[in-house]
Design brief:
Helices cover about 10% and strands about 45% of the residues. The protein is mainly β.
Length: about 140
């Protein structure tokens, strides 16, 4: 989201920013707070943005039964931050008596200019959830 110097504060812009961040699917918590009580004399409103990275890996498993497909099982894995550019790998195996599906997706994010994935360092354990904090100012 682009903030133009001198533009008026508009809650709708913050809502669109929140929605854009949610759609990225990289954060488990997104907190965007305008701070009008800290506005400067020239009416600039600071905006506090706090992001908590989502789990790096998510695994799924389940059993199924359908009258046409029969008994089956499903296994999946979603891996965020495959590399330092925020790529994502999704795999899903759905195996039943009369249905066999394998899905493999490699997603490359299309970030807006000036944005980065904010990926954790490779040495960080996959269970850690670092918090990233950013501030912006909107007049």
């Amino acid at each position: 989201m682009t903030w133009e110097e001198g533009s008026y504060f508009h809650q709708g812009k913050l809502d669109r920013l929140r929605q854009s961040l949610v759609k990225l699917d990289y954060f488990s918590a997104i907190d965007i707070q305008p701070l009008p009580e800290q506005a400067s004399d020239d009416l600039r409103v600071p905006i506090d943005v706090n992001l908590t990275l989502a789990k790096r890996s998510v695994y799924t498993a389940g059993l199924s039964y359908g009258s046409e497909s029969g008994a089956g099982m499903r296994f999946g894995m979603e891996r965020r931050y495959v590399n330092d550019r925020g790529h994502k790998l999704v795999t899903d195996l759905d195996y039943a008596q009369n249905r066999k599906n394998l899905l493999v997706q490699y997603r490359v994010p299309a970030f807006m200019p000036g944005w980065t994935a904010g990926t954790p360092p490779r040495s960080a354990p996959t269970t850690s959830r670092p918090t990233t904090s950013t501030s912006a100012t909107c007049a």
